[in-house]
Amino acid sequence: MGTAGRIRRAKAEAVPKLSIGITCYPSIGGSGIVASQLGSELARLGHKVHFISYEPPFRLDRKQRNVTFHRVELNEYRLFKYPDYTLPLAVKMVEVAARHDLDILHVHYAVPHATAALLATQIARKQIRRAPHVITTLHGTDITLLARDRSLGPIIKYSIESSCAVTAVSRSLKKETIQVLKTRKPIEVIYNFYRPKPPRQARTEVRRALRVRESDFLLIHLSNLRPVKRLPDVLRVVAELKNLEVGDHGKVKLLILAGDSFAPFRPLVKRLGIEDRVIVKENVLDIENYLHAADAGLYTSEKESFGMGVLETMSFGKPVVATRVGGVAEIVQNKRTGFLARLGDVKAMAAAVRRLAADPELAARMGAAARIRAEQEFSSQKSVEQYLDLYRRTIRDCRD
Ligand code: GMT
Fold it and tell me: Could you tell me which CATH number the domain at 203-377 has?
């Protein structure tokens, strides 16, 4: 750490420590990953962080100092046709707030987390005469999908407007939230961030284990494979390039780090005749080893409020070919850190990959620019400072 870093850290350590509750979806998905990273960084700075969810978040290091996980216990009474999560979550939030004197309850994803948090603060105010301030971070589908649903829209709007503060992970999501909910609630944009871990395996070793040769051009795609990611487009780009020879008899190959079962896509892989080009790893934790071993990223989503996979790929100095949608266009700079294409334009994306595969210098230059952009604009330090500043302003100003 340099002198400036040490001074910043000393300053951060000198300010009073907070007790912060965090609720997120723990399964594989960008919002849970962001919430875990944020909690981990806050704990590193000496704040007490309490995760409240139905299971420990996927990438959370539970052994870390200042981090505690509180499980929401679920009961399934036959009396109820549908099991409910919101109420036991609210009860657990009250319990944690009382026992650990929470200053802030930071919920990721509006429903049901923000709604449960509001209920919890009302109970806490009555029971313990003190309640944490609720901050809601919007991640995407809570607005782009659920807020448009008539059975959820009103409660999402109410929960957001009743939170002390609201953040969105990109400008595009903020704009869409204002449009969809017709709200005047101030929304602060705090970008997602990523702190890459150093790879523990050499690039050559990882490629050898994957049966990828040095001369092959290895594309990487990280996602939960939901329909919004348009996996068929990813596969079609690879199919477009199946006869391409790169370098010394190299081929374009694709590594998918999948957060869900890839089985439903196997028939398409077969139909496209790219079985020998596609490698799939499910539920991988050591993403750094694979990102380091890849040559470029490929992301074809139809909607993306941010795109954590895109940022993770850029952080490892890899250019990204992606669709020009939502927050992705705020991360990737077209023709500088990668290439942006129209949604569904498989041919344009294949042409971009072809250019990168044929020109290692271009790929290296764009990759280096991508890494610098990730480090400068989407660093953990920048976003965590913004969140801490928001927490302090909220504690000072919010009269909820
Ligand atoms: O769509 C997903 O991959 C899951 C979803 C989530 O709840 O984790 O992702 C959303 O939040 C991420 C973290 O902020 C963003 O990086 C994703 O772009 C966003 N997904 C969509 O907007 C579709």
Answer: 3.40.50.2000
